[in-house]
Design a protein that fits this description.
It is built from 9 helices and 13 strands. The chain is α+β, with helices and mostly antiparallel strands.
C-alpha cells in the first residue's frame, strides 16, 4: 500500500501536467468552436446588413439613367438649362434617397451635372475617367466600386450605370452611397468588424486606427493597382502590424502593437462588391474560459486526488489497524496457546501429583490398615503370649508335678507321689 501511494504521489504531477496541456488544448478548441459559431452569426449579420444596404441602391442608377431629363442632358451636354434642371433633379433625388452623391459623366470622363453642384466640393467639372466604375460603365456594364472621394475626401460605395440613348452609350451616371452609418454601428461591439478590398486594404472598420491599413504585404504590384484607380486618393497606406497563424482549422490574427491582442478571424467574400468582410473575436475571453475550465478541472482533480488520498489513508489506517488487530489476535492466540500449554502442563503435573497423592494416600491407607492389622495382631500376640504364659506356667508346673509324680510312682514311691498331688487344690 505504501508503495502504491508513493507511486500515485509521483504520478500525480505528471497527470496534472498532462491535464493542463491536453485539457488546455481541448478546452481552447472547444471554446474556439463555440466562439466561431457566435462569430459566424455576427459575420452573417454584417454581410446581410452590407448587402441589404447596398442592394437598396443597386438598381437606382439604371432607373435614373432612364429619366428623360438625364437622357436629354447627355445628348446636349453643353446646354446650360438642361444642366441646371439636371442638377436640381439630382439634388432632390439624392435628398429623397438619402444617398451621398449622384452625378452624370460624359464619355470623356467629365462631370456635367451633380447633386452637390452648389457645394464647394462639387463634382461638376471634375474628370473621373481614371475610376474603374466609369470605365466599366462606359463599356456598357453595371459597375460597383468602393473608394475614397478625390474631391470630397469622403468614403463611399459607387454604383455606375451606362446612359443609353436609342441603344447607344452616351454617358455614365454614378450613384455614391455613404456607408458610414453601418461602420458606426460596428464600434464598441463585442466583435471587431472590418472590410478589406482585393488588395487587402481595410477601408471599413469599427476601429478608426485600422483604416487604410493593409492586412496583406504592401508590395509594389498592390500599390500600383491601388494608385492607378486612386481608390484611396491621397490617404497614407500602411501595413497593419499583425501576424497570422492557424490553430487546427481556425485562423488567428495577433497584433504586434504595445497592446498585443489575439483574435479569431472569420471572413466572407462578397463577389458582387469584390470585398471581404472580416469578423474578429478577441481570444482573451476564449483563453480566459479555457483557463477557468482548466483551473476547475485541476481543482476537481486535486479534490478527487485529496479524496482518494483520504480514502487511501483511511484504508491504509484501517488495514494497519486490522493488521495490528490480526497481529494482536495472533499474539494473543500465541500467548493463550502458551498459557494453555503451561496450564495443561500444570494440570498434568497437578493430576500427576494428585495421582501420586492418591497413590500415596492409598498406600498410607493400606499401610495404616496394615499397621492397624499388625497392631491388632500384635495385641492378639501379646494377649496370646500373656495367656500362653499364664497358661503355660501352671501347665508347665502341673506337667512338672505330674512328671515328678509319675517318676515317683514309677519308683514306687507312692506316698510321695500322693503328697505331690496335694500341691494342686481340687
Amino acid at each position: 500500500m505504501k508503495y502504491r501511494l508513493f507511486a500515485a504521489l509521483c504520478l500525480a504531477p505528471l497527470l496534472l501536467l498532462a491535464v493542463v496541456f491536453q485539457g488546455g488544448a481541448w478546452a481552447t478548441r472547444s471554446y474556439m468552436d463555440e466562439a466561431s459559431l457566435q462569430a459566424s452569426s455576427a459575420l452573417r449579420l454584417a454581410v446581410s446588413a452590407l448587402s441589404g444596404h447596398l442592394s437598396r441602391y443597386e438598381p437606382l442608377p439604371a432607373l435614373i439613367a432612364e429619366h428623360d431629363d438625364i437622357k436629354e442632358l447627355i445628348t446636349h451636354p453643353d446646354d446650360k438649362a438642361l444642366r441646371d434642371a439636371a442638377n436640381v433633379y439630382l439634388k432632390d433625388i439624392n435628398r429623397l434617397l438619402e444617398s451621398s452623391d449622384i452625378y452624370v459623366i460624359t464619355l470623356d470622363g467629365n462631370t456635367i451635372a451633380a447633386s452637390n453642384y452648389d457645394l464647394q466640393t462639387s463634382f461638376v467639372g471634375q474628370n473621373f475617367s481614371y475610376r474603374p466604375y466609369f470605365q466599366d460603365a462606359a463599356k456598357g456594364r453595371q459597375s460597383w466600386f468602393y473608394a475614397l472621394g478625390t474631391t470630397s475626401f469622403k468614403r463611399g460605395y459607387y454604383f455606375a450605370s451606362p446612359i443609353l440613348v436609342e441603344g447607344k452609350i452616351n454617358g455614365v451616371i454614378v450613384f455614391k452611397v455613404d456607408i458610414d452609418l453601418i461602420e458606426t454601428s460596428w464600434r464598441g461591439g463585442e466583435y471587431k468588424i472590418f472590410v478589406s478590398d482585393p488588395e487587402g486594404i481595410v477601408f471599413m472598420t469599427g476601429s478608426p486606427e485600422w483604416l487604410y491599413s493593409s492586412i496583406l504585404p504592401l508590395n509594389s504590384a498592390r500599390l500600383q493597382r491601388t494608385q492607378a484607380s486612386r481608390r484611396y486618393a491621397e490617404a497614407e497606406l500602411k501595413p497593419l502590424p499583425i501576424t497570422r497563424s492557424m490553430l487546427d482549422d481556425h485562423e488567428l490574427m495577433t497584433t504586434t502593437t504595445a497592446d498585443r491582442r489575439e483574435y479569431l478571424v472569420l471572413s466572407q467574400y462578397m463577389p458582387e462588391a469584390d470585398w471581404t468582410v472580416n469578423v474578429l473575436m478577441d481570444m482573451a475571453s476564449v483563453r480566459a474560459q479555457a483557463r477557468t475550465t482548466i483551473i476547475a478541472i485541476v481543482l476537481f482533480l486535486c479534490l478527487t486526488g485529496l479524496a482518494l488520498a483520504i480514502v487511501m489513508q483511511r484504508r491504509a489506517r484501517l488495514a494497519e489497524r486490522m493488521r495490528m488487530q490480526v497481529e494482536a489476535r495472533n499474539e494473543l492466540e500465541h500467548r493463550v496457546e502458551e498459557r494453555t500449554a503451561d496450564l495443561a502442563l500444570v494440570n498434568r503435573r497437578i493430576e500427576e501429583e494428585i495421582a501420586e497423592r492418591r497413590l500415596t494416600e492409598q498406600e498410607l491407607r493400606k499401610t495404616q490398615a496394615d499397621l492397624i492389622q499388625a497392631g491388632k495382631l500384635a495385641g492378639l500376640g501379646q494377649m496370646s503370649a500373656a495367656l500362653s504364659h499364664e497358661l503355660n506356667q501352671p501347665l508347665a508346673a502341673a506337667k512338672t508335678y505330674a512328671d515328678s509324680a509319675a517318676m515317683l510312682i514309677d519308683l514306687e514311691r507312692v506316698p510321695e507321689a500322693t503328697t505331690m498331688s496335694g500341691v494342686f487344690p481340687d
